[in-house]
Amino acid sequence: MMLFFRFAKQEAVGTEEGASFSAGSAKMNGSQQAGALTPATPPLEFSAVKLLSDRYPSFIARANEARSKSESRIVLIVLLFISALMLAAWAVWDPRYFHSDSDLVYNMGLFGGIMMLVTLLYAMRKRIRLMRKLGELSYWYYLHLTMGVLGPVLIIFHSSFTMKSLNSSVSMIAMLCIIASGIFGRYVYTRIGYRVHSHLLAIRDTEERLARAMENFQGKETDAIRKSLTVLTMLVVNMPQSLFHLPARFFALRARAAKCYVDGIGHISAMLKQRAQEEDWDKLTYHAEFAREKRLFREHINALVKIGQLHFYERLLVGWRIFHVPLIFILVISGLVHVFAVHWY
To answer: Can you tell me the distance from the alpha carbon of 257 to that of 304, in angstroms, rounded to the nearest whole number?
Structure first.
């Protein structure tokens, strides 16, 4: 619902990097030119769509929605393909012909290890200043994904589907965990982007419809609804970045949403009763209008709460790196020890 309120000076944390809403608005200017989602009723200064668009500037363009849907499908297809390839290779693999001393298996391990090392270039490209001019970051990321898939496949073939020594077992387990966490992380990220856009569409739709329904009402009832929705929207926008504080804020958001709904239904009922008296509605007309407005109000609140839930999953995805990154160091160290042991002994 359009929030008919004015902020004298309202500034809050908006983007994932901790920028203010003004910085998010600057990003929105470019997104709007590319077909981004924008509030459809211009005379109203602030709306949930506007605030949330500033909060999630990278998830609102329609192009990003299509890309998120296609990428999530690609991730699933790649996962199914790798699983089928591994099962087929395991079924026909004969260690008498593909043993560790053969040149083919040895070279599989060599090239697989090189590919795994190439994946580190993506992190270096992001963090080392001298490398920031070496091509688009997206190209490095897709190189990271490609090498991160092909390299482990060759390593698994190199191992002949066995884990013999303790060191090679540690390397294999770490590598498999990295693959699983990487695929899981990418899939979750694409789904977050797709769902944020979908919920923003739902919020824009309910805002327009509720604004039209309330445009003939003025007074304390409408002011109370606007104020309640403002508080709820700001809770969604200002969800904490810390994983430690997220659960408490999430439950507070659900409690606020329930209170907003209960109070809002009371105010809507009072407004419709006033209109029913003015226009001489019968009970059937009143109950039909009340059910329609109540459903619309509930859909709007539910969409806001779902965006808050997606923020929770987004921060979990950030915490996923705590699991993903240390495994890379374990894999590199154990892999170097494995190479040293094989060539030394």
So the answer is: 9
